[in-house]
Amino acid sequence: MPLSGANTPARFVSTGMHFRFRKRRTTPAVIIVALIDVLIVLVIFLLVTTTFKQQNALKLQLPESSQGKKSGATENLPFIVSIDTNGVYFVDKMAVTFDQLEDRLKSATAKNPDVVLEINADDRSPLGKTVKVRDAAADAHIKNLVLLTKQPPKP
Fold this sequence. Notes:
This protein is an alpha/beta fold. The protein has three helices and five strands. The chain has a five-stranded mixed beta sheet with strand order 3-2-1-4-5, covered by helices on one side.
């Protein structure tokens, strides 16, 4: 039976409206693999471009000196003695007693007679401890002694 025409009942007559069925839209899919790739590239970029600052094991506040000279590269590595605010001696970032320090100074002089002693004393460390290190260096026949300081802030 035809849908349109004169012989069709009224209920089947076409009114001219055409209804279309809409297809349901699919939700957008997020591609996780591509996002992970982008994040990995960003992390690698940040790791490569970041400069890493080497932190000292001892937090020392060095005294200021306007007459201090910057140390240059030397052929021989200096023998570094650090003194913290409590007056504790450190050699190679390890706490040592004064007797151990004297022994290490003498053995360093035996290995290299031109060894340079660098005293890295905190600004608030007892002055007597620095003097004792200087005396121990003199007993070990160390001729070159350097006291580490920092430049004062410029006005």
